[in-house]
Amino acid sequence: MIGHLYMNMKVLITSEYDSPNSYFSMLADILREQTEFASEPQNFWTSSVDYDVVHIQWPEELFKWRKISEADLLRLNKRIAYLKNRGTKLVATLHNKAPHRKGDLDEKLYNIVYKHVDAVVHLGSYSQSFYPNVMNVVIPHPNYNPVIKVNPEDEKQKECITYLSFGKIRSVEEERQLIEAFLLMKDADTKLIIVNSLVGVNKYRIRQAIKKIKYRLYLRSLKRKNIVLITHRLSDDEINHYFNESDVVIVPRVDSLNSGVVFMGFSFGKVVVGPRIGNIKEYLDINSNPTFEPLNIFSIEKALRKAKERRDIGALNKKYSDAILDINSIAKSHLTLYKELLTYR
What keywords were assigned to this record (predicted)? Predict the structure, then answer.
């Protein structure tokens, strides 16, 4: 427990508690015990409470991830001015350097949010220099211990070395680089599982019968080569099963700043393979997890082979995760930041 030093502090985090991303719900559970806490994007727009701190996780959440208009941005500027005039301190966590969605106004949305905040929370040191005119603080991503179930029994049932690519696949290129690198290995005793697969979806319609049949045969050929493409959304039990079953976790990114997959893999005690980019590289380097150059299948193949031989790194990742990335410590760092901001009100 952190204590009750912050009970008079009014904090709003503008995220939906029931979001599929448990990063926020884990943090909210702790902050709710320590502050006068509220969440949900609607409170950003309509609440009359004089919040001491308003913390934005993802700018898109303010509009519930819908497509935005110039009128929305004007409304946002007015609301930010209203909050700042009332003495509210604004904080934003930098999950993404730029919006994943490429709408005409999404970049403007990011610029408005990060231009007006009093502090930016970074998940690693790589991005600390992006906003030199505000307070910058590094608070790592927490481990997932509160929401996962580590089951060593699943590991005993394995017949081959299993690579698990987890996280939302944002482009076909992210997925194809893994498939091609895995095929390059030509290891019969290995299996590749890709969650949230785009390649696994046969998008050809019935009237495109020949293309549809050819693509179906292509998918069958991948399956024969021990490549499992999962297209449906996994349940919590399925997520736990696949992570426990895996030997190596892969971060399939090509241009991202951060990835929660790193910390999920650490939480399950797995060696993690990922790209040498952004804050991702910073955490993978801590215990010498294998890294690769994005879209370079030879670099990816080399990293996959190294991970197979260095599965012992998983235990080091688990030890680091448990000691440094505990959600109570992460929440305390947030509260310390909030208190420091209010000291200079």
Answer: Transferase
CA distance 246 to 249: 7
State whether 129 and 255 are in the same domain: no
**37: CB partners within 8 A, 6+ apart:** 11, 12, 13, 28, 31
Task: Give the pairing type, strands 53-56 and 36-39.
Answer: unpaired
Compute φ and ψ for 167, nearest 5 degrees. 100, 160
Burial of 144 (0-12, 13-18, 19+ CB in 10 A): buried
Residues 338 and 202 in one domain: no
Distance (Å, rounded) from C-alpha 62 to C-alpha 12?
Answer: 12
**Does residue 2 sit within a domain?**
no
Q: Residue 286: helix, strand or coil by DSSP? A: helix
| Contact (CB, 8 A) for 40 and 325 | no
Asked whether residue 158 falls in the same domain as residue 22, the answer is no
Q: Is residue 3 part of a domain?
A: no
Domain enclosing residue 166, as ranges:
146-323
The whole-model pTM stands at 0.93
* One domain for residues 166 and 97: no
Residue 210 neighbours by CB under 8 Å, 6+ apart: none
pLDDT in tens, 33-64: 999 999 999 999 999 999 999 999 999 999 99
- The tokens of 273 are what? 């393979």
Count CA atoms closer than 13 A to 218's CA, side-chain side. 12
Question: pLDDT per residue over 173-188, tens digit each?
Answer: 999 999 999 999 999 8
Domains identified in the chain, total number: 2
Query: pLDDT, tens digit, for every residue of 277-295?
Result: 999 999 999 999 999 999 9
Q: Is 174 within the bounds of a domain?
A: yes
Separation of alpha carbons 306 and 332, rounded Å: 36
Assign residue 132 the CATH number of its domain.
Answer: 3.40.50.2000
Residue 152 forms part of a structural domain: yes
Is residue 100 domain-shared with residue 151, that is, in the same domain?
Answer: no
